[in-house]
Design goal:
Elements: H1 3-8, H2 13-22, E1 25-32, E2 35-42, E3 44-45, E4 49-54, H3 58-64, E5 68-77, E6 82-94, H4 98-106, E7 119-134
């Protein structure tokens, strides 16, 4: 990671891609029937784009329409007590080329949810932003037991 970026809180373009490549689960945001919807998707990074598979309902319809979408990932490192967040905004499209599908499969894109996920969707990045920040120190007595920051003292 770029040490200068850590001081400002903003992540570089390359830092964002590195975090995206190190993760497998994100939240896909789409507009469906005029309302925002969020879907958890497992994904891989292929040619600096996000690829996921779907069975062909809402996410596929939006991809066929080539509508804008966003994907967000975040994380927390209890050792450094830092949190980070990355957002990719762009357009979705269906991958038709079998060589591209094979390349994506070779990266380990395996759907988590049971059922056939025969459609491959690519989110091509038009904007990529990310930030990292030091979190407030948790209070050993008052911080909720489900708060991930508790890992720093447990």
């Amino acid at each position: 990671m770029n040490p200068d970026a850590e001081h400002t809180g903003k992540l570089t373009f390359d830092d964002c891609w590195e975090l995206l490549e190190s993760d497998t689960l994100g939240r896909l945001a789409l507009v469906v029937d005029g309302h925002p919807e969020i879907f958890p998707v497992n994904y891989v990074v292929h040619r600096r784009s996000i690829v996921f598979r779907t069975s062909g309902v809402t996410k596929l319809w939006n991809a066929k329409e080539e509508r804008p979408a966003a994907l967000e990932i975040d994380g927390y490192d209890p050792h450094t007590e830092e949190a980070w967040s990355v957002v990719v905004r762009g357009d979705t499209g269906i991958i038709e080329d079998q060589a591209d599908k094979d390349a994506v499969d070779s990266l380990g894109l395996e759907p988590w949810e049971p059922g056939e996920k025969a459609h491959y969707i690519r989110l091509s990045a038009r904007a990529l932003t990310g930030r990292r920040f030091k979190v407030n120190t948790p209070d050993v007595w008052n911080t909720r037991s489900t708060d991930r920051r508790r890992a720093s003292f447990e």
